[in-house]
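Practice problem: predict the structure.
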Amino acid sequence: MKRKYQILLIISSIVVMMDQLTKALVVAKIPLYNTIVVIPGFFNLTHLRNPGVAFGLFSGGNSNLQQMLLMGAAICAVCVIFYFYSKTGQEFPLMLIGFSLIVGGAVGNLIDRFRFSGVVDFVEVYVGKYTWPAFNVADSAICIGVSIFFYYMVFKRPDNF
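Answer:
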């Protein structure tokens, strides 16, 4: 196996394992919709299920059709990332890492959709009345990976993109 694809397999596998482990702990230890205050006024662990997408978009419904469409969209997104990954040279290792983070995060959340018909979110950050939507390890990996991708597109755009 090419080293380039070993990077993808290792990083995305680590993300999926960390994501699923943290979610399993939350599901086992925190009842659904309950909260553990970690740092008052800033950080909670709250067990939530998000049937929608990032930031709670499309979370109003929880139909089988919606879940199938979201799973299909996630699978398509992973395929697109694989394509970009295959076109990225080894001279851009940070971009390869970014794509690997996105794949790992997408797969982690996809597993939840199959298991729970929604994504387990649990990290809740807020300052006073200003809150950030709850998220998880997979969401963090996706955000970091997308940030790396945008950095490369803006500042170090590879010729083959």
